[in-house]
Amino acid sequence: MPQFTLTLSCPERAGIVHAVTSFLVDHGCDIVQHQQFDDDVRGKLFLRTAFSCADAGVDDLAREFATVATEFAMEFELHDERKPRVLVMVSKAGHCLNDLLFRWRAGSLGGEIAAVVSNHEDLRPMAEAAGLDFVHVPNTAETKHAAEQRLVELVEEYQADLVVLARYMQVLSNDLCSKLAGRVINIHHSFLPGFKGAKPYHQAYDRGVKYVGATAHYVTPDLDEGPIIEQEVLRVDHSFDPRALTAAGRDAEALALSRAVRWHCEHRVLLNGNGTVVFR
């Protein structure tokens, strides 16, 4: 039977789960997975319920569930089993793109990669070898506004539900961040804000760090400070020179980003203030 996923958040009160499950039972739905989190600090409940239903479509279910949502002041989303379409943006480093492509072709990414966009030509062969469109959009100080307008056009053209900055080395404008709020995921090393600049792993080596890691988060106008979805940490020691630290960091970046993309595409991530609730 067709599969659906309901996610919601609302103020905590009695009867929420009963209302949701009763609605699903009354509509002939079979619950296959249910997860919830009660945030006692903020007084909110977060819920993700996956279910099957043979007798209704996603639009009809969403329209009828709106009555329940209004009663409990819920913010909710209802999705069918269509995989979200993903637009991947890159610059010159290919490790994150390569990992995303592998997982996409293996069927474990959770979404469908629609195209690859870059401000450089370096990764065209990798994208085209995977059978994907590669769109070169130069982005300089003089062309930044036009480049971002082109990105908006590409999101619409490819009907992208999610934009993934897979080591895309350009800062998005506040306006673009607002237009695509909740739909852009970025990855970066977890040394920020400590080790800024072009060679963070060299700085880490000089300071004798014992951990390297990566952070995947939603993009907001506050640079590298959006709600965190996933972080990966690896233990290192004095034997790791800058090259080895960089290699370890790339592994962490690829892992954290692929998990964040999959969880987003499977509707497992709910915003909770400046943070997230992730139903794994």
Automatic annotation (TrEMBL):
Enzyme Commission (EC) number: 3.5.1.10
Chain ranges of the Formyl transferase N-terminal domain: 85-261
NCBIfam families: PRK06027.1, PurU
Name by which UniProt lists this protein: Formyltetrahydrofolate deformylase
Enzyme class name: hydrolase
InterPro entries: ACT-like_dom_sf, Formyl-FH4-Hydrolase_C, Formyl_transf_N, Formyl_transf_N_sf, PurU, PurU_ACT
Record's keyword terms, sorted: Hydrolase, One-carbon metabolism, Purine biosynthesis
Metabolic or biological pathway: Purine metabolism; IMP biosynthesis via de novo pathway; formate from 10-formyl-5,6,7,8-tetrahydrofolate: step 1/1
One Pfam family named in its UniProt record: Formyl_trans_N
Family: Belongs to the PurU family.
Keyword Hydrolase set for record: yes
Catalytic residue list: D224
Catalyses which reaction(s): (6R)-10-formyltetrahydrofolate + H2O = (6S)-5,6,7,8-tetrahydrofolate + formate + H(+)
Function of the protein: Catalyzes the hydrolysis of 10-formyltetrahydrofolate (formyl-FH4) to formate and tetrahydrofolate (FH4).
PANTHER family linked to this entry: FORMYLTETRAHYDROFOLATE DEFORMYLASE, FORMYLTETRAHYDROFOLATE DEFORMYLASE 2, MITOCHONDRIAL
